[in-house]
Amino acid sequence: MHTFRIITIATGRFDNLTVQHVLNIVRQGLEEDDTWEQFRLYFKKRLTEVLGNSFMCGVDAMGKSFFINVFSSDMKNILIEMVTLKDIAAYTVAGHISKDEHIDSLAIPKSLCEDVRNYIGCTR
Fold it and tell me: 39-73 burial by CB neighbour count: b if 16+ within 10 A, else e?
């Protein structure tokens, strides 16, 4: 299980209650199963149960992080980014490193080294 930072990027013309319903579904889905396939299925099913079938959504995986887009005609979109704390840490560390070979000299877990490599050059 991963720890996520949930960031609401946009809410379109949706009212606060609808946005809160969507965020609650996100949190409940992460508690159920935070793998992309299971979370995506849970989220789509619960969104329809709670808000009706006039809403559509997309759940895209970016590594272990997710990007969620909920939309309905004339309401614009609710955009939510869920970033793992591991991705946030890797991105932050990569911002302080200029070359790939510097990673091995860091006192960080080996499991984080590859994630840091993925972000080098993306932070500038």
Answer: bbebbbebbeeebeeebebebeeeebbbebebbbe
